[in-house]
Amino acid sequence: MSFVVPAEWAPHRAMWLGFPSHAALWADDLPAAQAEVAALARALAGPGGERVRLMTGHPDGEAAAHALLGDVAGIEIVPGRFGDIWLRDTGPIFRGDAAAGFRFNGWGGKYELEHDDTVAAQIAQAAGVALTENDFILEGGAVDHDGIGTVLTTGQCVLNPNRNPGWTQAVAEAALAASLGARKVLWLGEGLRGDHTDGHVDNLARFVAPATVAIPVAWGRGDPNAEAFDDAARRLAGMTDTQGTRLKVVRIPSPGWIDGDDGPKPASHMNFLIANRAVIVPIYEPRPGEFAVEVLKALFPDRAVIGLPSSAILTGGGSFHCITQQEPAR
Fold first, then answer.
1. 5 assigned to some structural domain
2. Which residue in 322, 324, 326, 327 is the catalytic one?
3. 157 given a catalytic annotation
4. Is 51 part of any domain?
5. What pairs with residue 205 in β-bridges?
6. Residue 1 resides in a domain
7. Alpha helices of the chain — where are they, by DSSP H?
């Protein structure tokens, strides 16, 4: 295989970012969500060292984006069409000077919105790269990459019959090898409770350096995901990357229990975003957030580590990593 997906810490040509644009979806949370995304865009364009391509999905969103960010250097507002802002899942996965697109079915049929199945083509065209369409369902948040062909994922999501019925590990691994250059797939089990994505790995475990994976550790009494965190850590402690190097596992404090309408929200510090010169961490509660930032500072000594509020974005089901997609340098 002659290509792999670059690690997120590799240099970027641009960072794509979705801007909340639909009042019918976000309701009373729309202004706060727009403000949080605007703060993320400023951090990316400033200390993050990124060319930000802020994609709007509706004329109302475009107008709001111009009002908040139209005069900020390094931010380009790109009018587009999407159902919602989750570009990590609806957009393409870049492989250097090309991109891979996949079928999208609203996370197993839960939220099928107009235009979401066209986002990958829109972004690839705007980026000026060829798009290879793959005839199976995959979301970008379901896979994490180390840049040498090792891929992290969860069986709960990728083998879920609501995506590709009948898939086995072997079938999935062949598909990921052909589409993304995966040379070795590391399988984890369950993701976060209450996560409508059915266990996306970017809320659970992330590569932070070669042969190094960060996983949460439970915070506070009654952390709803303590068992999933510990199970993932145990599995990874016995694994190696595609070069045979045993993985190092680093534990980062979880936000703990964050109340939702029907139980805990899928809040995770693992949904951080690695920019060219910064790592930007979603914060939900001050104290565990401060500890998470400190651990990540030790892991990324060459980047600023910035914590920003993400509680309003979380009302939509995700956070910073979910609403972005990096375009690698060519």
1. no
2. 322
3. no
4. yes
5. none
6. no
7. 23-26, 30-45, 59-69, 87-90, 106-109, 119-127, 155-158, 169-180, 226-237, 286-299, 311-314
Looking at residue 218, which CATH number applies to its domain? 3.75.10.10
pTM value surpassing 0.85: yes
The total of structural domains in the chain comes to: 1
Contacts of 213 (CB under 8 A, 6+ apart): 152, 205, 206, 207, 236, 247, 248, 249, 250
Tally of helices (H runs) and strands (E runs) in the chain: 11, 18
Q: How far apart are CA 132 and CA 101, in angstroms?
A: 6
Distance CA 232, CA 101 (A): 28
CB 152 within 8 A of CB 207: yes
Kindly give the confidence (pLDDT) of every residue in the chain, 330 residues in length, as a single tens digit, with 9 standing for 90 and above. Answer: 468 999 999 999 999 999 999 999 999 999 999 999 999 999 999 999 999 999 999 999 999 999 999 999 999 999 999 999 999 999 999 987 899 999 999 999 999 999 999 999 999 999 999 999 999 999 999 999 999 999 999 999 999 999 999 999 999 999 999 999 999 999 999 999 999 999 999 999 999 999 999 999 999 989 999 999 999 999 999 999 999 999 999 999 999 999 988 899 999 999 999 999 999 999 999 999 999 999 999 999 999 999 999 999 999 999 999 999 999 998
3-state helix, strand, coil in the chain (%, to 5): 35, 25, 40
Its domain, for residue 111, covers: 12-328
Q: In terms of Cα–Cα distance, which of 99, 103, 101, 90 is closest to 130?
A: 99
Per-position b or e across 45-70, b if 16+ CB within 10 A of its CB: bbbbbbbbbbbbbbeebbebbeebbe
Instruction: Answer yes or no: is 306 within a domain.
Output: yes
Residues 229 and 191: beta-carbon distance below 8 Å? no
Closest CA to 247 of 218, 283, 207: 207
